[in-house]
Amino acid sequence: MKTQEEHMHTARESNHRNDEATDLGIEHPALDQEAIARLAYFYWEERGCPNDSPDEDWFRAEAELGNQLAAAASHS
């Protein structure tokens, strides 16, 4: 079974999006990589700690946090 650090490291390494901003090396400045990693790890545990790719958990966490930021920004 992977440790939290191993899962986060693997998730960060496989964090490949095909959108233009990422291709340019631009990421949303408010999306904290550590927060994404913690939430992705929670999702991974929730799925029973499978040995498959962590991409699913990472992208889900990234999208969730991004949606929360967008919602907060629209209420400001």
Could you explain the architecture of this structure?
This protein is mainly alpha-helical and 76 residues long. The chain has one domain. It has helices spanning 4-13, 20-23, 33-46, 55-74. α1 (4-13) crosses α3. The relative contact order is 0.18. Residues 14-26 have low confidence and may be disordered.
What's the structural blueprint in terms of helices and strands?
Layout: H1 4-13, H2 20-23, H3 33-46, H4 55-74
Briefly characterize the structure.
It contains four helices and no strands.
- Sheet/helix structural class: mainly alpha
The total tally of domains equals 1
> pLDDT average, as an integer?
76
What is the overall silhouette? Answer: elongated
Cα-to-Cα separation, first versus last residue:
42 Å
Number of helices: 4
Residue share in helix: 55-70%
Q: Report the order of strands and helices.
A: HHHH
Estimated radius of gyration: 13 Å
User: In total, how many beta strands?
Assistant: 0
Indicate the low-confidence ranges by residue numbers: 14-26
In percent, how much strand structure appears in the residues? Answer: under 5%
Biggest sheet character: none
Quick tags:
elongated, mainly alpha, 76 residues, 63% helix, 4 helices
